[in-house]
């Protein structure tokens, strides 16, 4: 419905997509999450890659008066409580669908953090779906996608093998979590 508008805005702003993925199922891990505009760039990217990517967001975004907009744009609220096993719920949802693409910002905030929230990793691992890393390279006005990979079950090894090299290549990513992971510090 709004795809033509988002596509037009994306092109008018001079953004481009690099290495667009073609997968029926997967978890898109989007970073860095530094600006409010990240959400808008993400919305504009979906029609450019011709994929119906849903997203997970904090529950507070889905409250009135604007919550309906976030749902209409493909969002699902995340309620962060200790009594909810959200990782397992997402994994089960993936298993029930032949095609499902979901995006998540593992930093969980626009602030600089020392480590990523790990739920995304365990969601993908439990569901046996690939992770597709997605980087917003603001200096080059590019949304860059990595090749999809299946998790090994070893969070630290996969961070070193896939995440650190990919996100180091994204201009503008100067986050504490990246530096810590590069140095092998995962429990900061």
Radius of gyration: 16 Å
The shape is globular
- Report the major sheet: 7 strands, mixed
Cα end-to-end separation: 44 Å
Query: Overall pLDDT, averaged?
Result: 89
Portion in beta strands: 15-25%
As laid out across the biggest beta sheet, the strand order is 1-7-6-2-5-3-4
Task: Please count the beta strands (DSSP E, at least 2 residues each).
Answer: 7
What is the domain total for the residues?
Answer: 1
What's the helix count?
A: 7
Low-confidence stretches: none
* Helical residue percent band: 25-40%
Order of helices and strands: HEEHEHEHEHEEHH
Structural class of the helix and strand makeup? alpha/beta
Pfam families: Acyltransferase
Protein name: Phospholipid/glycerol acyltransferase domain-containing protein
Pathway: Lipid metabolism
Keywords: Acyltransferase, Transferase
Commentary on this structure:
The structure is a single chain. The protein is an alpha/beta fold and 188 residues long. It has one domain (3-182). The chain is 37% helix and 19% strand. The chain has helices at residues 3-12, 37-49, 67-72, 86-96, 119-127, 155-168, 176-182; strands spanning 16-18, 25-31, 53-58, 75-78, 100-104, 131-137, 142-145. It has a seven-stranded mixed β-sheet with strand order 1-7-6-2-5-3-4, with helices on both faces. A hairpin with a 4-residue loop joins strand 6 (131-137) and strand 7. The longest helix has 14 residues, at 155-168. The protein is globular, with a radius of gyration of 16 Å. The model has no long low-confidence stretch (mean pLDDT 89).
